[in-house]
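STRUCTURE:
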């Protein structure tokens, strides 16, 4: 396991982050329309992906194969504004974890790359 994953609290820490994050997504006017009403399967996939992304067990790959996250997100119109909104929701969720501010910032910084990589639509 990576030090990053361990610093985040391992499986429990990742679960806590995902559970804090998705209510914010569901309430966000730019993001909510992209997600199904039953958010539980999305949350589980996010938990598996973040576990793997931050150096824990390769849960996502074991269940679904290579993440190929950009390809998996192509069906959804992801604009720069939506990427920023996603990161904003994540920042709020990170603040609720109680993790050290430096760790929160490091996690957010690490997620910026993928968030902007998924952009596939221009601004409206």
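SEQUENCE:
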């Amino acid at each position: 396991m990576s030090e990053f994953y361990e610093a985040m609290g391992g499986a429990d820490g990742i679960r806590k982050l995902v559970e804090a994050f998705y209510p914010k997504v569901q309430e966000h006017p730019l993001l909510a329309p992209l997600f199904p009403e039953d958010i539980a399967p999305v949350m589980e996939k996010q938990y598996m992906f973040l576990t793997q992304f931050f150096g824990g067990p390769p849960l996502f790959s074991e269940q679904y194969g290579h993440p190929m996250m950009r390809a998996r997100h192509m069906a959804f119109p992801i604009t720069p504004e939506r990427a920023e909104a996603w990161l904003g929701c994540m920042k709020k969720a990170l603040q609720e974890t109680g993790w050290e501010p430096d760790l929160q910032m490091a996690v957010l910084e690490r997620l910026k790359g993928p968030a902007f990589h998924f952009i596939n639509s221009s601004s409206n």
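REMARK: The chain has a mean pLDDT of 90.
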